Structure prediction request, 479 residues.
Amino acid sequence: MKTMLHSISIIRAGKRPQRGQIMIFAILALVILVFVALWNFDLHKIIAVKAISQNAGDSAALAAARWQGQTLNLIGDLNILQAAALMRGEPETAATIADLQARLCYVGPMIGLMAAQQAAKNNGIYVNTDFTDRVRDHALTVRTFYPLATGPSDQPLFPEPFPDAWAEYSGMIEAVAANGIAAAPDNARFYTDYGGDHTLLDPDFYDAIAGRYWCWFYFNHPGLLSSYSRYTDWPPLPPTFTLAQPINSEFFSLDLVRLDLTDDMAVFEVMDSLREERGLSSTLIIATNLTGVTAAWYAYAPDRWTAWDAISPTNNPSFPLAGPVRPEYNYAGADAAIRIQSTVPRRSPGAPSSTLLWSAAAKPFGSLGSEPQRPDAAGLVLPAFHDVRLIPVDASSAPAGGAFNIAWRIHIEQHLPGYMQSGPQASSVDSSCGYCRQLITWEDPSFRSGGRSWLASNSNTCDVAGGPGSPGGGTRRGH
Ligand SMILES: [Zn+2]
Prediction:
């Protein structure tokens, strides 16, 4: 990053416009070359040196998060370069920079995915065939389905964020799968995922049925045991394919948005703060220079970069962090959750408990200014990340159940829609699926009346502070 900052001062100092233009293109070429080189280069040695954690899950999560931080810094530097290009009246250069940023939103996290595999393998974890198949299948979906998927009025469901995006992105996914997946990206958010919450999409519901944790109902769904009579009572499942504009990789998303702005005062203000951040000359009148200019900027998605305590649902008082979080570290967004699952003989086929599971999560951290502020304080992405830390998995962006809990994914994607249509008799409901078996139990009126009568006399023993029925959770994932 130092090279780029130095170059900006060269651009400012240079009197001839050609010089700045050449410099910016030289930097762009360099950035592309570095990424291409890293993509092809065996990351083994780098990661072996940098992996400081003791187990494979931790080092895989840290490796992925490190690439997230480095990519965010690069995108931030490119925001600054874009401002510099616009100041010099070079809109084509600015557009090229925005295009490069769009690619980095995918390439950076995918290098993180590859680095995570190396880190896990270096720590003695073998390739997991289920994970590998799932990733390879997804590459095929990206290649064949995403370019063709259309909505009700024939509009593309997944418009490409840059030319040939789906071909390039699926190629990268295939390249990672070809080497085998040992560390699954458990906070992957697929464009085809459910876009909302539902009790039937909460693995804790199934756990509560299996373990007769009546207190879970008491805390999370008081009244459900009484009001429920049959499967038609459920509200519909949330819609899938809700994504309007793909910007972020499905794996290790950077949680960014693209702002296309013309003459927006907010951008001028951000540019002013940016000038202070990077020590740009105060003689540059940015606002005047940028008037009438339309440009695309990469900014933090405000609904993802929320304060950490805000992601704790109201019914979940025991947020999994001990003690107060320093303000400059109190933000979600752009993290990496890893699932490592070793194959052990299954005693009951389909049961999720018959595998040995490790999970870990990490996140890039950074701050802006001498009075440390959150890295997203300015809205626009700036090079602010300088650290990577492990975070509690339950505080990560991994969806309920995890993106690579294969049995769970098969249940919610293939079994659940049939159950919603025709109840437990549906042909898609599979008695070899542990989750389907809990649904069949749930449909039994005597099961629910048993819970009602237990709670009628024992609900005072439900303990907020702990226990499997408590609302705090944290028991779902192994550590
Ligand atoms: Zn099922």
Q: What stands out?
A: The pocket of zinc ion is lined by residues 411, 415, 430, 433, 435-436 (CB under 6 Å). Residues 2-191+242-395 form one domain.
